[in-house]
Amino acid sequence: MSQDADATPEEKQKPRAKAQIKHSSWSWFATPQPIKHLFDKFPLEIYSENELPQRTAYERDPHALYVFTTNDGARAGAPSFNPGCLKWQAYLKFRNFPFITKSSNNHASPTGALPFLLPASSSSTSVEAPPSPVPSNRIQRWTRDVREKRIADSKSSNLGNKEAKQGEAQPETRASTEEATASSDIWDIRYEAYMSLLDHRIRNAYLYSLYLSPPNFDAIAFPLYIAPSTTNTLVRITISHQLRAAAEAELLKQSSRIDVEAIYQESEKAFAALSDLLGDDEYYFKEKKPGLFDASVFAYTNLLLDKGLGWRDTRMVNGLRCHPNLVAHQKKLKKAYF
Amino acid sequence: MADPLESGDDIFDTLRKGVDPKLQAEKDRIRNEREYAHYEKTQRRLGELIQNNSTLPTTISSIRILGASNTRKSFLERIFNPILSVNQDRPYTLAEAIREVSAGADKLHRLDIFHEPISIFIDRPAKTDPSTTPTDIDFYLSVREKARILIKTGTSAGNGEGEAYTNVQLRNMFGGAESLSLNASLGTRTRSAYQANFESPILSNPDLRWEIGGIASSTQKSWASHEEVLKGGWTKLRWMAQGGGRHELGYNGIWRQITGLASNASPTIRNDAGDSVKSSIQHTWVKERRDNPMLPTRGYLNKTTVELAGWGPLQGDVGFGKAEVEAQGAIPIPIPGVKGESGVSLTANVRAGLLYPLPLGLESEAKPSRINDRFGLGGPTDVRGFRLSGLGPHDGSDAVGGDVYAAGSANLLFPIPGVPLDRPFRFQTFLTGGRLLALKKLKNGGTNSENVRQVVGSTIAELSNGLPSIAAGFGLIYAHSIARFELNFSLPLVQRSGEDARKGLQFGIGINMM
């Protein structure tokens, strides 16, 4: 019906203040000074900003991690029911990082997949440009930057901020030891190898067992992922179909056909390897505090061992239960951090 | 037939010279005049004839439609059978009979399946036929059907948007003036849009139509950093009321998806991202009394729209009642010393809308509105001098829309010196303003009906708190038959912090401009 001819999307995305200056003085039409002064007099009156709608999140102070969870779960900070989200939720909790969780969906994410973190906004007005969201693959680096900045700030201001240091000191030393170890190539290769067990073998089996095994899809995936997005039956059917097709496509990326038996066997082998790696230690890689790898393992074990979810096809769950040390690892983390 | 050219001595010389354009024009004029005079004379003669016989008792024994080979007989019968004398309890006079048949022809014309003009012939049946009575006459309507398939394809560029489109229209599909229209377009801003709608008159009545349609589209909404994907359908009934108002009553079921967020999208947009289904009934009433909708100089337009979504059996994911009213009036302004139309006119517009949250289905609490349902205000077609959706609440650079609005404008139109009045160009000065507000945040939490009523009341009261956001300016109008084009210079006078005003030139295209 109508188009604003001159406002291209690029211009729109710039902060407002800049855009206005740009348009009052066109590049091909140099505005003479007197006219520019005249333009600057307008608008004659500026009132305070309009209130934001009711659905808008008003509290913007704590950092917010957008995850798959229920509304009640978000308020309570309960563990997310999506392994990708739970991994980073657990990681931030392990690091004592202050944040809240928000119930969201993939459409909200800058990468098209949850989770992502929306840093706290420093300004109280809605007119300021909001901070950019941090996608999951940059969360680790971002937390490090935030800490370094905070440490630098607290050092430069010589005020006695002991409490800040008390909270920060421990994780900071841990982070540095992790980095020191990370410098060793052998460690790196081992870490990568074990990480790929989780990212491929366990993930594949999880994808199959949640989305493509019909009893689990009906009992878990449907009520958690599909039902909250809409009440409309037709749309639910469409989204269910899309979700299953996406899971299938993901599995077919790695092999030309879906061999259920092979997928489950691979995951059982992977659990055995993870169990061996953990051994009798409290946390992976003999660390004193849980790290990202513990979070990655916990993301799957917590979901598989959650009786509340109601797994119907329990093949994968049984594969995990054979390893008591993995079960204990999950219990300990759950108890300590959630 | 006297030929003005015959006066020359040598016919070959004249031919060699070619036809003098002046002479040709003169010739055309004389011919036209002659034809017109002839036509007038026959008309007058016919008029007199009918006048003299207007009270002649007449019975319509038959009406034949010639040339309607693709139109169903039963469909045409529904229009013309009631007129036939067999179905009337008293005889017509000749004038009445002609009037009735003309009304039928007018209906045919409004069905939009025949070319203009539809000619009417009258004949007397052969006296030799024993079944006829002396008062019998036959009517013949000669029609020419319009093309049944119309395919348009094209590309367009401009407005920072490139677009390619295909439009296929099937007219008179089943011989009952049914039409099917299929649209597909791909573009940069409206990423893709596919639309199909089927429309059919009910009981051969051009003033009562039923429509069913579906849409699948994806549109970039850069002013709120997202892309909206729609899939859905609607059905509606359209009819003309006695007083000349047009009514539409329909049901919409649409699955909306807020997706493809820009990297700097605000938290408000991120919270609204995802799926929602709107199931609503909608009623629109329009009364159009403007002399020219694109460039009105006198008359008025009234329009109301009411939509009810999610309430009771409607279900869906959003519940609200939405009402919008619009009024436009235009008056010509006489200039002392100028005879006849001065070409100067004043148009005034008022628009207002309210989005009232309602509980979904049988729930007791109403849910707050989403960006898909809230109003946007500002831009070259409503409050000029502001960017598209430039008014109302903003989160960062995103226009997040509001639940209550009121806007108005006054435009003074002048003819452009040296340009004839009947040309579609005008110069205008305008003063326009409006306010768009979101419902205030609920203080004591619950969204039961009593709380909602209070909040809506206090938000409406807030509309008159302080001056509205206002802009003033001047510019040029070109009123094309399908859209109006404007190039304006404007400056904001009053605005809210965060609102997106535009200083300087603004170009606008619109069908329904404020």
From TrEMBL, chain A:
It comes from the Eukaryota. Residues 83-123 form the Thioredoxin-like fold domain. InterPro entries: Metaxin_GST, Mito_Protein_Transport_Metaxin, Thioredoxin-like_fold. Residues 268-331 form the Metaxin glutathione S-transferase domain. Residues 142-153 have a biased composition (Basic and acidic residues). Residues 1-20, 124-179 are annotated as: Disordered. This is Mitochondrial outer membrane protein. It comes from Stereocaulon virgatum.
UniProtKB/TrEMBL annotation, chain B:
The keyword Transmembrane applies. InterPro entries: Bac_surfAg_D15, D15-like. It is a multi-pass membrane protein. It comes from the Eukaryota. It holds the Pfam family Omp85. Residues 172-512 form the Bacterial surface antigen (D15) domain. It is found in: Mitochondrion outer membrane. Its main location: mitochondrion. Gene3D superfamilies: membrane protein fhac: a member of the omp85/tpsb transporter family. Keywords: Membrane, Transmembrane, Transmembrane beta strand. Belongs to the SAM50/omp85 family. This is Bacterial surface antigen (D15) domain-containing protein.
